[in-house]
Design goal:
- The complex is a heterodimer of chains A (about 375) and B (about 375).
- Chain A is of the alpha/beta class.
- Chain A has two domains: about 1-40 and about 180-384, no CATH class; about 50-165, abc type-2 transporter like domain (abc type-2 transporter like fold).
- Helices cover about 65% and strands about 5% of the residues of chain A.
- In chain A, the strands form two sheets. Chain A has a four-stranded mixed sheet with strand order 3-2-4-5. A two-stranded antiparallel sheet of chain A has the order 1-7.
- The mean pLDDT of chain B is about 90.
- In chain B, strands 2-1-3-4 form a four-stranded mixed sheet, with helices on both faces.
- Chain B has 17 helices and five strands.
- Chain B folds into two domains: about 1-40 and about 180-370, no CATH class; about 50-160, Periplasmic binding protein-like II (D-Maltodextrin-Binding Protein, domain 2).
- The chains are: A alpha/beta (about 375), B alpha/beta (about 375).
- At the A-B interface, helix 3, strand 5, helix 5, helix 6 and strand 6 of A face helix 2, helix 3, strand 4, helix 6 and helix 7 of B.
- Chain B: This is ABC transporter permease.
- Chain B: One of its GO terms (cellular component) is membrane.
- Chain B: InterPro entries: ABC-2_transporter (IPR052902), ABC2_TM (IPR013525).
- Chain B: Keywords: Membrane, Transmembrane, Transmembrane helix.
Chain lengths: ~375, ~375
């Protein structure tokens, strides 16, 4: 098993470069895993946004409006300084800024209905529209009572009473508003890491055996080509199995409930098929790469490209429809689809067909990429 | 001699394919990935579009339902409709909701009910609109009971045109927060000059490369040699960053605001700081070339990470817990400069950022030169 031993020796030398990706992965998982405390709920909850209200009104109605809005949204106190407010709005620390001028009460008492308040929001934004309608509803209700000659305090009291009337909202039976488990994010980032780790870990080894001098020397030895290739294959399988075990072990420590369930088993199969795709890609790419710099370029381009396009870093819902149509031609897209569908499964009897289709397509990707690699090797040999 | 050296440095840079990949091709690729992934986020998630909804009328048609129908018609009409209503049967509406083609079902029989599948902004707006109708009815009923003589005036005032709110804005800049990723990308493209800066140092230190050993025995002044390398590299790096910027603004149509000349100036300063960083790290210390390269990559990637290349609001998080880091991290200062140019109409913050960057670059360059000058080797 000289070839296998040489394989492991080169691998050992490459481990520091591979371990960088391991730490990147841990960072990504910790940064993006959201807490899964709200697993399911059947009650509708109105959206709560963050408002900054700058109230300069001393007539009382400004404070009433502020109190009313505080029951619907979160209020945030921010220094009344243009730059600070601009930063807060841009970074979405506040969704809406409302200036209540000092003549607000006076204008309302006079029945003025035009431009009594100043707002700053993301132009054309949904959040701004939502709060606008609530502020306008409050003011128009108040105006009706003032028009009917109610005293100011009485009008505010009546308006607040009316505004407490709410539409009944129901969620259809059996529909649960569910949120994704943190383990979902863990498994979602795995393909990126698998691609990087296999290309950076196995790429240099495969390249080393393909070097002209080494390959010529090996070919004239007594060892058969079949035997040599078999040992390299066993080496590759050792590496990917080792990677898979490490990442499943980590998942087992972090999300034990999830991993030791049917969902964990299916996620393991999904990851297992994907690492074969990563292996096939490495095999194919090693045929072209001439040195480690090219390997590094390819690793970043393929890893990031497939991850962004396939929906690993960004959910499919955010991506445009045309992009998604192209994304269907990437293995990462099907991995993500399977990973999403695996989350809700409670038993094998309810296994959605999308999961099996995705598994099948991923396997097809692995086989086709590997076949292309084989054809290229054959061509190269024939050319010799 | 000086221009001759610059010319050859430029030729050498253009022939170093590896460095060109990281300075030119990689930012363009990453920009494309960013664009296809979340280029449409602002329009899809933050911009208001008419909400698709199904309207199911129950059997119990009271007089009220006529008012409610009119109320809905007003919402779906006009130049900027708020709702996109499909008037269908209950079964059809359920199907549409299940397929997520609509955001909710408005069911009007004895009372008005809203059926939704999940929480969300559109669903909350739908509820808010229906609340408006119910609340207005309650107000009219109250006034009818307590002050019936005022009712006519009140109802007339319902139809008055009102615009209580006046929309103001701080600036006409692009408020899409996702552009921060592209700012960080341009900053990264500038700072990738560090690889070329590293090469300048390797070419000037005789203990690190054969080329440098040959160069230091020549009669050319070392300051002239390093300056020529620096300007030649800066020229190529600047062109690469400009091509990346051109691709982002002209092909992908990313909106960086309307102060393009100043953005280009910022990129030039960014390139200077990028090259200076690589030059400094590789000029000081006695580590091998590979170790130095590792340190250069490590520092640059950390700077880019902290400026928001991987997580958009990273700069905000750093500002909250460790603000000084945002003032001294060149990537964050660059991102902040692009941001200030886009959002503010004053140049105070931008000027401050430029002074920080130029001072840092000057300090790094002077220190690098002091380290490299008059170096003597006992043996090589």
């Amino acid at each position: 098993m000289q070839v296998y031993r040489a394989f492991l020796k080169i691998l050992k030398k490459n481990l520091p470069a591979v371990s960088i990706y391991f730490f990147i992965f841990m960072g990504l998982t910790i940064a993006f895993s959201r807490s899964g405390n709200e697993n399911s709920k059947t009650q509708f909850e109105q959206e709560k946004l963050t408002l900054c209200i700058i109230n300069q009104d001393d007539g009382g109605l400004g404070k009433d409006l502020k109190d009313y809005l505080s029951t619907l949204h979160k209020l945030k106190n921010i220094k009344n300084d243009k730059e600070t407010l601009q930063d807060a709005l841009y970074n979405r620390q506040v969704d809406y800024i409302l200036y209540i001028p000092n003549d607000f009460t006076e204008k309302m008492n006079q029945g003025i209905t035009s431009e009594v308040l100043r707002t700053i929001k993301i132009p054309g934004g949904t959040a701004g529209f939502f709060i606008d309608t609530q502020v306008e509803q409050y003011l128009s209700t108040l105006k009706l009572y003032l028009k009917a000659d109610y005293a100011k305090e009485q009008a505010v009291k009546q308006a607040k009473k009316d505004l407490s009337v709410q539409t009944k909202v129901t969620v259809p039976n059996g529909e649960e508003v569910s949120e994704l488990e943190p383990a979902f994010y863990y498994f979602n980032y795995l393909p990126y890491i698998f691609i990087c780790i296999t290309i950076m870990g196995l790429g240099p080894i495969l390249m080393a055996f393909q070097k002209k001098e080494i390959s010529d020397r090996n070919n004239c030895s007594s060892m058969s080509l079949k035997n040599k290739n078999m040992q390299i294959t066993i080496g590759c399988i050792t590496f990917v199995t080792f990677c898979l075990i490490i990442f499943m072990f980590l998942a087992g420590i972090m999300y034990s409930d999830f991993v030791f369930s049917i969902n964990g088993l299916l996620s393991f199969i999904n990851a297992g098929i994907f690492i074969l795709i990563a292996l096939a890609m490495t095999f194919l790419f090693a045929q072209f790469a001439k040195n480690e710099n090219i390997l590094n370029m390819g690793c970043n381009t393929i890893g990031l490209g497939l991850s962004f396009l396939g929906g690993i870093f960004v959910p499919h819902e955010i991506m445009g429809d045309k992009v998604l149509q192209v994304a269907r031609f990437t293995p990462t897209y099907w991995y993500v689809i399977a990973n999403e569908k695996i989350q809700g499964i409670k038993s094998f009897a309810h296994l959605p067909k999308e999961v099996l289709i995705s598994f099948g397509l991923e396997a097809a990707f692995a086989i086709s990429i590997f076949s292309i690699g084989l054809i290229i090797t054959k061509r190269k040999q024939d050319a010799k | 001699m000086f221009f001759h050296l610059i010319k050859y440095q430029i030729k050498k840079r253009l022939n170093t394919k590896d460095e060109l990949f990281w300075s030119l091709v990689f930012p363009i690729l990453l920009g494309t990935f960013f664009f296809v992934s979340f280029g449409g986020f602002f329009d899809k998630y933050e911009t208001f579009h008419a909400i698709p909804v199904a309207y199911v009328q129950g059997n119990n048609k009271s007089l009220d339902s006529k008012y409610f129908d009119n109320f809905l018609k007003e919402l779906e009409g006009g130049k900027e409709p708020i709702l996109e209503i499909s008037r269908v049967s209950q079964e059809e509406a359920d199907k549409l909701l299940k397929k997520e083609e609509i955001k909710g079902i408005i069911h009007a029989a004895d009372s008005i009910t809203l059926i939704v599948k999940e929480d969300g902004m559109d669903q909350s707006i739908l509820k808010g609109i229906l609340d408006q109708y119910l609340q207005k009815s309650s107000t009219i009923n109250d006034i009818m009971k307590t002050a019936p003589e005022k009712l006519e005036g009140v109802i007339n005032s319902l139809y008055e045109e009102t615009n209580y709110l006046i929309e103001d804005s701080f600036s006409d800049g692009n408020m899409d927060a996702m552009v921060t990723y592209f700012y960080a990308l341009i900053a990264m493209s500038c700072l990738y000059g560090c690889f070329a800066g590293h090469t300048i140092a390797i070419q000037a230190k005789a203990n690190l490369s054969n080329l440098a050993a040959r160069r230091v025995v020549s009669c050319t002044n070392k300051l002239q040699m390093i300056l020529a390398d620096f300007f030649g590299t800066l020229f190529v790096q600047f062109i690469c960053s400009l091509i990346s910027l051109g691709y982002l603004t002209l092909v992908l149509k990313v909106n960086f605001g309307n102060k393009m000349p100043l953005i280009i100036c910022t990129i030039l300063v960014g390139n200077i700081i990028g090259i200076a960083t690589g030059l400094f790290i590789s000029a000081v210390g006695r580590q091998s070339e590979n170790v130095k390269m590792g340190i250069v990559i490590g520092i640059t990637m950390t700077e880019c990470f902290l400026s928001g290349l991987m997580i958009q609001n990273m700069r905000v998080i750093v500002e909250k817990y460790f603000p000084i880091l945002n003032r001294i991290n060149p990537a964050s200062v660059l991102v902040d400069s692009f941001y200030s140019l886009n959002i503010y109409d004053t140049y105070e913050r931008y000027t401050k950022n430029m002074i920080i960057l130029l001072t840092m670059a000057a300090v790094l360059c002077i220190l690098s030169y002091l380290t490299v000058r008059r170096e003597r080797y006992a043996s090589l």
